[in-house]
Amino acid sequence: ACAAAGLINLAAWWWHRPLLFWGFDEQACAAFGVSAERSRALLYVLLSAATVVTMQVAGVLLATALLILPGAVALAMSGRLA
After folding, report:
1. Model confidence at 80: pLDDT above 70
2. Residue 1 pLDDT more than 80?
3. Could you write out the three-class secondary structure of the chain?
C-alpha cells in the first residue's frame, strides 16, 4: 500500500504541470501543448488508484472523509475569496 501511494504521488508530481493547466483552464490547454483529454484521464486514473489504496489502508468511512473534506474546504474558501 505504501509503495502504491508513493507511485501515485510520484506520478502526480511528474505530471503536475499538465494537470495544473487542465485544472485551471481546460480550453487553453491546446495553446500550451497540453492534451486536455489525456490530462483528464490521468487525473481520473490517479484519483481512482488513490481511492483504492486509501480504502485498503484506512477503511471506507475514513477514505470517504479524506476525499470529500479537501473539496468541501476549498469550496467554502472560494466562496469567501470571491
Report:
1. no
2. no
3. CHHHHHHHHHHHHHCHHHHHHHHHCCCCCHHHCCCHHHHHHHHHHHHHHHHHHHHHHHCHHHHHHHHHHHHHHHHHHHHHHC
**Distance of alpha carbon 64 from alpha carbon 33, whole angstroms:** 34
Give the residue, 82 or 4, on which the prediction is more confident: 4
Which grid cell is 5?
A: 501511494
Return the pLDDT at 81.
59
| Upper half-sphere CA count for residue 13 (Cβ side, 13 Å) | 6
For the beta carbon of residue 34, count every other beta carbon within 10 angstroms: 19
Q: Helix 36-58 and helix 16-24: axis angle, to 10°? A: 110
Instruction: Estimate the crossing angle of helix 36-58 against helix 2-14, to 10 degrees.
Output: 160
